[in-house]
Amino acid sequence: MSDKFIRGGNLLKVCVGIFFLFYFLFITEEFSHCARIKDIASIQGARTNQLLGYGVVVGLNGTGDGGQSEFTIQSIVNLMERMGVTVDPKKVKPKNVASVIVTSQMTPYMKNGQKLDIVVSSMGDAKSLQGGTLLLTPLKGADNNIYALAQGPLSVGGFVESGGGGKTQKNHPTVGKIPNGATVEKEIPFSLNNKEELIINLFNPDFTTISRAVKIINNQMGENIAKAKDAQSIIIDVPNKFKGNVVNLMAEVENLEVEGDQRAKIILDERTGTVVIGENVRISKVAVSHGNLTVKIAESVQVSQPTTPLAGGQTVVTPQTETSVKEEKSNLAILQSGPSIGELVNSLNSVGVSPRDIIAILNTIKAAGALNADLEII
Fold first, then answer.
1. CA geometry: angle 357, 358, 359, nearest 5 deg
2. Mean of the pLDDT values across residues 307-336?
């Protein structure tokens, strides 16, 4: 009895495990397409701002700008004059100095004293920025106001070495980064709590997705505060209980999960042979046969000489050309109407095609009017 009881207990455990496995798979399948609103949309006005500045990198080991970069020479002269040193521009040789463009991004929530990562890119004929230090550089916004100051040693993920007629280079030595290399000096004017109305914009406009988002927001808030303006924008009227405290309202809204939807699309990259097929791609019933035709032309030279030195003949050079044509055999695959992605891929694989062949086949199916999806080539 004890053995039967043990076997029965083990069987019960297995059944319970299988139940939870199928339950987990069901839940995963049901919510696999859901995403938080914060991951598919952004608040209008809370945008990232681009910062730009012109600076000078010093301390290079002879890999800086050459004498042809007049703007670098002028920058050095101006810098030295601000330091109280007068120099002759004709005697300046900027081998250890390089002119650079400094870029960064700043969100509207950044405060004075906070740090920004910056990217430093050579704009002259410098060979490498390795080992260089960026001097104090103001970073301006589109309104020409200074929002941050940048300075510090560069981190360059590459190098270049040459000598004896040879050259070795890794990555791009003329671009470097400085983590936390800029300090915010001026905040971007943006206030959230005093707003009476908020606009949320989807990253990918879609009528179905935005309708679902509006419904979920209204159900969560218990009142109709959200309405769709178009396929991309949601207008939210701030309720009275959140007046002056819009941050808490957005904290609740941005964590709501929405089942997104998208248009059926296929992305083709002919440069790399990459094919990405969206979930909702469908095709009408069509038959596909694909084969490769290879034409090979080889040319060789045949030399004919006299048999003996006194024969009186001449050496003749005769070109020989050989041409061969090979056509690969292929099977005919019939794609039924409305197949899923798996069925579509399996059918194409049954024909024995490569990714580049799939690109050609999909283009042909689209031309035949049997592809119910957008075909985008990048």
1. 90
2. 58
